[in-house]
Amino acid sequence: MSELGNTALPDRRRPEPLWHQAETAMRELIANGTWTDGMQLPNEARLSGLLGVSRITVRHALRNMEESGLLRREHGRGTFVRSSRVIAGVRGLTSFTQEMAGLGLKVGSRLLDLCEEAASPEAATALEIREGEPVVKLRRLRLGNEAPIGLQTAYLPAARVPGLLALHQPSASLYETLKRDFSITPREAREVYRVGTACAEDAALLGIEPGSPAFVVERITCDALGPFEFVHSIMRGDRYEIRSRLHL
Known about the structure:
- One of its GO terms (molecular function) is DNA-binding transcription factor activity.
- By secondary structure, the chain is α+β, with helices and mostly antiparallel strands.
- It has helices at about 20-30, 45-50, 55-65, 95-100, 120-125, 165, 175-180, 200-205, and strands at about 70-75, 80, 85-90, 105-120, 135-145, 145-155, 190-195, 215-225, 225-235, 240-245.
- The protein has 2 domains: about 20-80, Winged helix-like DNA-binding domain superfamily/Winged helix DNA-binding domain (Arc Repressor Mutant, subunit A), CATH 1.10.10.10; about 90-240, Chorismate lyase-like (Chorismate lyase, 3-Layer(aba) Sandwich).
- The chain has 8 helices and 10 strands.
């Protein structure tokens, strides 16, 4: 079997640029486990031969993957697959499932809690409802390539999602369920990031030591009618990073 397995190789007869085809092929090798976390990639000359493209084309693809957080280059050593991370920063309004797919990672979730409860003062303020009104609480352990990345607790006004407790499947994208069954389509979101630490309970679920660095993220998502989701997340500091590109 080839070092690249059954991955489709770049083909000059296809309309996509060769660098894009090469990048797609290498992303697939990470996603399907052929290239594992921490593994050193073949050098540019070897990749050029394996993919059937020039070294300049390979270099372009590798640079894009490094910028997106999939690879790391170490001077004098080579290029390595990074431990799976979520890269946050300037991006479109996406779900966790879409973010994982965009990074070439296998998305996964473990349902921890799905229930209806009274809105806390914090959730009520975020969702612009009265304190004590019923909200649906959805708490999940989010996974990338089967390893924990973060804990997310979402609150949604029960009045806007009647029957969600019975309809939503743990493995499904929440946004897809909201769009399909409740005609709720995200329009904008506001996020706040803080640096914190993981408590003992959260650390046990995340597979890290209590007190380990973590990002605390709060997100309010709106559609045409206003806020429909308030999410509180604890993201592993070693698997979640924020990147920004600044311009004058």
